[in-house]
Specification:
Elements: H1 3-15, H2 21-31, H3 37-43, H4 50-87, H5 106-119, E1 124-125, E2 131-133, H6 134-137, E3 157-158, E4 161-166, H7 171-180, E5 185-194, E6 206-216, H8 221-236, E7 242-249, E8 252-261, E9 278-287, H9 289-294, E10 303-310, H10 311-319, H11 332-335
Parallel strand pairs: 1-5
Antiparallel strand pairs: 2-4, 3-4, 5-6, 6-10, 7-8, 8-9, 9-10
Helix pairs in contact: 1-4, 2-4, 5-10
Amino acid sequence: MPTDKIKQILAEISSATVTSPDELEAYRMRFISKKSVVGELFAMMRDIPNEQKKDFGQHINGVKQAAEDKFQELIQALNQGTKKGNTEGLDLTLPPSNLPVGGIHPLTATRQRIIEIFERIGFNLSEGPEIEDDWHNFTALNFPENHPAREMQDTFFIEKNPDVALRTHTSSVQVRVMENEKPPIRTLSPGRVFRNEAISARAHCIFHQVEGLYVDENVSFADLKQTLYHFAKEMFGKETKIRFRPSFFPFTEPSAEIDISCLICGGKGCNICKGSGWVEIGGSGMVDPNVLENCGIDSEKYTGFAFGMGIERIAMLKYQINDLRLFTENDIRFLQQFRPLL
């Protein structure tokens, strides 16, 4: 029986020390892995006479156990040394180093600022699913059966179920709120929406909207105008002007587009506002009585207003960004410009 080899291995194990993870791994490979010297001893078992195999097996198991015990000791010793090494010679009175920090994404900053403005005047926050059924996305909002938005070229429908689609606006969240809450309702619905559009500097198939809804007794268009006047001045500055242009939306009547004075030229006319001095930021109007009735609200007793804006459009105006694609390309050169937003 090769007792000399066993004694030699036990001596190596007993005297082993490590000062780094690499040395610890070298110990593991030599004494614990399948191809270790202990493994070689087990391989020798086949050449040992039968009457000696029991004693030889006990010796090998003893070596294996000694190697594993030593391995755990070495791990603990290395961890303690590392912890000790982290504080030795360290002057804790020195100021911290100015490590580079990340920045808030401009869309996130814009979204939070919009929410903050409307929360201060009583709007709460509501969210809903991005995959919607036909009722919440179209029918309850007074979209007729032949409306273009119901066509495949404008909306991403779920292939196996033509009555389910990726929501095209966060107005679907407002429907859910009106179905489940009683007036007075004053809510803001920010979120991601999807439309089947070609990606360009001014359009994207995935973007973000924020929509507001106020339903109560005696709500008027004047309330809508004052609410949006307040938002525009808080978001873009006190000198900002706002105007309403007649428009049409299936879910509001009367309806109006919302314009603000161009932030680039101050309303004098430039290529951004196409010489008009005005830039569109969204749509608005009084909630159509049919929409109220679809959601179980008495349109004879209650009225309401709604508005919707693209968060990307607001961010582009506020930070003077001229390409919508920059928001989703994760170009570090673009994102680094917004570190001061922290």
